[in-house]
Amino acid sequence: MHRRSNSPSANLAVALIAAAFGLCCFLPRVGSPGVFAEVISRNNGNNRTSFYPNAKIDAADVTSGNWGPAFVTVLPDGANDSVTAQPLVYTPASSTRPVLIVVTDNTNVYIMDALNGTILNSKNYGPPAYINIWGYWTFYPGIMSTPVIDSSTDTLYFTTLTSTGNNTDIFHLYAVDVMSLETKDNYPILFANQTADNDRTLSFNDYRHKQRVGLSMVQGAIIVMFAGYDKKPCEGWVFVVEATTGTIKSVFSASTSTDVTEYGGGGGIWMSGFAPVVLDNGTIFFSTGNGYGNELNDSTSGYDAASLKSYYEAIVRLDIASDLSMSIVDFFIPFNASQMDEADTDASADGVILLPELFGNETFPNILLIGAKTGPFKFVPMNNLGGFKQGYNGTDATIVE
Q: How many alpha carbons lie under 13 Å from residue 265 in its C-beta half-sphere?
């Protein structure tokens, strides 16, 4: 946990929520009062390293008498609410003070003073959906994913999953002003019944999917990703939404109807809430989970990216063009993907991280780090992910485990 210190060397600004039974402890400041780093998307930056470049906390800071919570705030709906998404820290153009942005599972959005925890504004965006898995795991996934902020327009983007009261759940993507929470023109938008560009026979069903992955921005677009939950058939989905118009410009499904069972194709994108790795040129990297198709069971060698029917237990590279269309460029699937499916070890249990360049070398200058529920971690060259069974004796062509 990041806590407040008066040490001049500790100048990092972080927001952290501990949410249990509605009690939210906000520990947002390390360093001199008013010194904050912007945190406008999940894991503090498009590389998803959770690295804060101005962090200079040492042992003396932690053991000092000044080490402690900055403030504690109990949310109005705290006893019945919880927080899954990462909070964000941002200083809007209209303010000289940073704000802490908190979204909750009950579809509440709170704008708070990041220096003292005062709630400046809040709004509820409808009754959250209700999930009951296997009869004993119940929760409300109203806003589960971490929002993203467009700092050029002071716009907060987030998704909600709300219930209509007749066993139908509806996803919306909102764009609101960071301070007033007023909804921007052309929003909210819907995802229901959108078809995949790579398989026009597949259409998106809100009820069978959940949105856990943090939102991201690239090329003036919002990237929204989905996975299944306990409802099947289901697939992994990627939507590219033009930010200014709210228009869905392209849609990708991680599995296609040519490789499905009664459970669907699978390949859900959830990544424990991580957002995808995003490069400025429009390239994105993400991981997918368990699959239900049969394509890899019968394969003895690799595929190129264009010929593969489904991408499950995979690392996937998509390139987003200037017209916001998507193309599949590269992938990596572990040689034992079928066994991973059977054991439910799920490659999408971890996000994808682009390691700092100091971890690379001349042969592999840029390296992605991935994992699964049971490990091991794999180091994958960003510019050549490795395909399927392209290593020695049909194993993985990764750098090292």
A: 25
What is the C-alpha to C-alpha distance for residues 149 and 134, in angstroms, rounded to an integer?
A: 36
pLDDT in tens, 278-333: 999 999 999 988 776 656 654 545 556 666 778 888 899 999 999 999 999 998 88
Instruction: Please write the tens of the pLDDT for every residue from 174-206.
Output: 999 999 999 999 999 999 999 999 888 889 988
**Cα–Cα distance between 123 and 119 in angstroms, integer?**
11
* Angstrom distance (rounded) from CA 118 to CA 242: 34
| The length of the chain, given as a count of residues | 401
pTM value > 0.85 = yes
Q: In sequence order, which residues have a C-beta less than 8 Å from that of residue 251 and are 6 or more positions away?
A: 194, 195, 196, 197, 204, 237, 238, 239, 240, 326
Q: Give the three-state DSSP class for 41.
A: coil
| Residue 392 main-chain phi, psi, to 5 deg | -60, 130
Pairing of strands 169-177, 155-163: antiparallel
Query: Which of these ranges, 7-16, 19-28, 122-131, 386-395, has the smallest mean pLDDT?
Result: 7-16
Report how far residue 82's alpha carbon sits from residue 1's, in angstroms, rounded to the nearest whole number.
18
Distance separating alpha carbons of residues 324 and 305, to the nearest angstrom: 19
Which residues are CB-neighbours of 123 under 8 A, at least 6 positions away?
108, 109, 181
